[in-house]
Amino acid sequence: MIFLAALLNSAELHLQSSARLGSLVQNFLRNTILAQEDWADFIIQQSLPEIEKREAFILAFLRNPDPSPLARSLWESTLAAKFNWYSILEVLDAEGAVLSRFSLNISQLYQPDIELPLSPTWRVRRVNVPSLGKEREFVLAYKDWYYQDQYLGRMTFSLAIDPEMLPFLYSANPYFELLKVSLLPSLNQQQFGFAIFDGRGKLLFNPYRISSGIAAGTLDRIELSPEGMWSSFRDKDRIFKSFYFRFQNRVYAFLIPQKNILGLTVEFLQVAIFYLGLAFLFLVLIPAIIGRRKLASFLWSFSSRVNAAFVTITVISLLLFTLFSHRFFIRTFSQRFLEKAEVHANFARNIMQDFVTLQQEEKATLIAPTDDLVLWISSAIATDVNLYGEGRLISSSRREFYDWGFLPELIDGEAYYRIRYENKPFYIQRPRIGGYSYQSLTIPYAIRRTQYLISLPFPFEEQEIAGATEELVEFLVFISAFLILFVLLFARGIGRMIISPVKKLLAGTREVGLGNLEIAVEHRSHDEMKSLVDGFNTMIKDLKRHQQEIADLSKKVAWAEMAQKVAHEIKNPLTPIQLSAEHILRVYDDKNADFEKALRESASYIISEVENLRRIAQEFLELSRVTSLTKEVFDLREAIGEVVSPYRKVISERIRFREIYEGQEFPVEADKSKIKIAFRNIFINAIEAIRGRGEIEIRLRAEKENLVLVIRDSGIGMAKDLVERIFDPYFSTKDVGTGLGLPIAKKIVEDHGGTIRVDSEVQKGTAITISLPRKN
């Protein structure tokens, strides 16, 4: 049931996730591209009033410039910041020099090469700006600021509308995630890729690093689908669900990676493990913690302990393997990072060396590489580049982060010391900014006698490790489930060899305990368990033989005892019968005148003793034969009255009968004649136990399920050892009697599904409690 629920839930989660991501791509991101220019115009129009609210601060800054990050504070107040839109805001003085500047993922080489006429109000226009060999389109808003007819300077606010600078695209900037102030998705947050193709299907923009273009057949279908189309796409052994659409002679593609069978299986196993964990928590741990059930009770059986031991060993082994594998991956990727970083760093150093050599050939004054050169190097190696001289920043591909204080302009002291004073050829460190960290490589670079340090941050190293770790986790989850299944099957095999025969032996032992000696345990394998099972079966056969021998012996003893008791009981009446008959003959031979009287007396005595013999025979018969009950529904109070009435008439002067009935009706379904015999035997014992005057109390009460009758006498009572034997056949505390009255009463009560109990104290009397099922 748990695995079925996990399967359904994982399938539902997968479908919902795919549908949600597909809707995001088709309904939001596509519209973002189609409406990029409209959105840019809207953001510009909404942002300009926010800037105007700071007019007094802007005029004060233009009149008296200071190092405060005015451009940054103005940019943060705009809608562009809320949407994380690639943009740049500059404040220029009257000569056109930059006083304050802030940009989000816009190159410092951004310089619109157009003449913009003076305008005391905001003007908006579209411009194409060359950047690193490509022309990129921007929406540019600008305004010239005056104070009492004095021209102070200009402010420009530009938003990128180039498709390659879409806000949701992942940036190579390692600090990009720290700058985000909106919830717009990026390729780093969502599991999808993005690519731009020309009209013939060739790649123009490839941040996801796919290796192929669009097939001709797919291009034809895209042409016939103005709203876009979904298709499958395979690249580098990866399968993508791709959404294509055409816009302005370009084809845009969103690539959603699809999970293979292994990935889907891992999703199912993760949900199943979660459900199993919940089941274990609520069914085992919580009851164990609150004390309702001991944890050991769940592992009481040998099979449970074997399974738990195998699973524990497997899990521990997998955890150790995971730990060492993760370390191996980290070492592997660290080595790859080092190799790649060295290549990039040497490339940057060679470019800078060529820059110095060119200056020397032209016999120009040597200057350090500028921000523009560093930015060009950064675009060539696809990572940021920072250049330090004497430990202080000289140029950077991300100058804005240093200008407004996000990063310090002084290089890390540890890196500076290791390279400058320990002469290390390079130094690797992991800077941390808030909760974000990244790898950084620093190498030395000398211009004449001045030593420079080139620092390259690598933001993708952790992502590569995370991706590899995710694949490792998927593999380990799959292999863990496989191994645990294999272990459980192996444990089941062991169970069939060891545990199953033991369970059969336990079941056989229980049957023997219940008296069934016809049981025989089967075991087909010829191993040590076979010897144990054969020994058990032999023991059962021996027990059966001994039981038969004991039963035969018991029967002989019982018959001998019964014959002795019957002979004794019959012998007692036969003696007076013989004497009475001899008395009749003697009187007859003597021709005595009292013959008639003697005949009557002797005949009466003989009849009395014969009746006694009949009673003895009847009691033995009642005890020995199988009872056949003729049940009827009657009131138990009525049956008690019928039994007590004759005794009350005869011995009421010596013994007082007190009847107490708690209730109105006492219905019972029973054999009335048998019940009266049981009551009569009990009353006879109670009467005979009273020496002289006394009392017999009869208390009957009706409970929900039973009728309870208590017969209490004020007789001589019995000791505890006698009470324990009172229901044994032939046991009696009186000089006369067969000792069968109470055993017969007990048998009748139990035949009716009831119980009988005796409580007695010496010289205080005896109480017999009878419980019979009540007829509802």
Describe the 3D structure:
This protein has 776 residues and is α+β, with helices and mostly antiparallel strands. Helices cover 50% and strands 21% of the residues. It folds into five domains: 35-168, Beta-Lactamase (2-Layer Sandwich); 191-258, 3-Layer(aba) Sandwich (Profilin-like); 331-464, Beta-Lactamase, CATH 3.30.450.20; 542-625, Helix Hairpins (Orthogonal Bundle), CATH 1.10.287; 627-773, Histidine kinase-like ATPase, C-terminal domain (Heat Shock Protein 90). Strands 2-1-5-4-3 form a five-stranded antiparallel sheet. The chain has a five-stranded antiparallel sheet with strand order 7-6-10-9-8, with helices on both faces. Strands 12-11-17-16-13 form a five-stranded antiparallel sheet, with helices on both faces. A hairpin with a 4-residue loop joins strand 6 (193-198) and strand 7 (203-205). Helix 8 (261-290) crosses helix 13 and helix 9 (302-361) packs across helix 10 (371-381). The longest helix has 62 residues, at 528-589. The radius of gyration is 54 Å and the shape is elongated. The two termini are 43 Å apart.
Keyphrases for this structure?
single chain, 776 residues, alpha+beta, Beta-Lactamase, Profilin-like, 5 domains, five-stranded antiparallel beta sheet, 50% helix, 21% strand, elongated
SSE layout and pairing:
Blueprint: H1 2-34, H2 36-52, H3 55-63, H4 70-76, H5 79-82, E1 87-93, E2 98-104, E3 123-131, E4 134-147, E5 150-160, H6 176-179, E6 193-198, E7 203-205, H7 216-223, E8 229-235, E9 238-247, E10 250-257, H8 261-290, H9 302-361, H10 371-381, E11 386-389, E12 392-396, H11 399-403, H12 413-420, E13 427-429, E14 432-433, E15 436-437, E16 439-447, E17 450-458, H13 461-513, H14 528-589, H15 595-624, E18 632-635, H16 636-651, E19 655-662, E20 667-670, H17 672-689, E21 694-702, E22 706-713, H18 720-723, H19 741-751, E23 755-761, E24 765-773
Parallel strand pairs: 19-21
Antiparallel strand pairs: 1-2, 1-5, 3-4, 4-5, 6-7, 6-10, 8-9, 9-10, 11-12, 11-17, 13-16, 14-15, 16-17, 18-20, 21-22, 22-24, 23-24
